[in-house]
Amino acid sequence: MRQDELQKTVESVSLKWFGLPFVHEARFNSRLRTTGGRYLLKSHDLEFNPKQLEHFGYDAFVGIIKHELCHYHLHRQKKGYRHGDRDFKEWLQRVGGSRHCGLVPGTRNRKRKHLRYCCEQCGAVYERHRKVDVSRYACGKCRGRLQLIGENRGR
Predict the structure, then answer these.
(1) CA-to-CA dists, residue 73 to 24, 70, 90, angstroms
(2) Do 67 and 36 touch, CB atoms closer than 8 A?
(3) Torsion angles phi and psi, residue 126, rounded to 5
(4) Distance (Å, rounded) from C-alpha 92 to C-alpha 66?
(5) Half-sphere exposure of residue 81, counting CA atoms within 13 Å on the CB side?
(6) 34: burial class by Cβ within 10 Å (0-12, 13-18, 19+)?
(7) What pLDDT does residue 129 have?
């Protein structure tokens, strides 16, 4: 699906299911990883993850469009547009939008790298995702010096 086809699809879904026009921009954003789409409060534009369409098909993608249009129309009407608001939940159920999107393979299930540090005095071991400046930080148990002992792939 191209950008212009996405725009037309969002406009037609808006008219068919909400009876209200969508007058802003809908676009694909391939940098979205763990979400199907998002509503931008300041510009009122909608962004969608193209991988959702590729992996789960058109019907699931329309459910994501309905979800984002609920945010869009409720916010523009100054009603409860957040996930926890009653208005949002009622509209989402009424139009049949999806509450959650599927997990695209390879997005969240990647192993993270852990850096391992060891205290030179007491031998306490610390695992961190980010590098620690050993000249600035010390052991939390005995205030001893930390030393990088290696890295391993996460859990």
Answers:
(1) 11, 5, 13
(2) yes
(3) -125, 135
(4) 7
(5) 18
(6) exposed
(7) 86
Task: For the chain, give the mean pLDDT.
Answer: 92
Tokens representing 65 are 């469009």
Do residues 146 and 117 make contact, with C-beta atoms less than 8 angstroms apart?
yes
φ/ψ of residue 67, rounded to 5: -60, -50
Q: What is the mean pLDDT of residues 116-144?
A: 93
Selected catalytic residue, list 5, 68, 90, 120: 68
Between CA 91 and CA 36 the distance in angstroms is: 18
The CB density around residue 21, as the number of other CB atoms within 10 Å, is: 10
68 is catalytic: yes
Q: How confident is the model at residue 112 (pLDDT cuts 50, 70, 90)?
A: low
Q: Which carries the bigger pLDDT value, residue 154 or residue 47?
A: 47
> pLDDT (tens digit, 9 = 90+) per residue, 55-83?
999 999 999 999 999 999 999 999 999 99
Instruction: Determine the 3-state secondary structure of 44 from DSSP.
Output: coil
Query: Alpha helix (H) ranges present in 3-152?
Result: 3-13, 50-76, 86-95
Across 28-49, average pLDDT? 95
The one-letter code for the residue type at 97 is: G
What residues have CB less than 8 Å from 14, skipping those under 6 apart? 20, 21, 22, 69, 72, 73
Say what the pTM is: 0.71
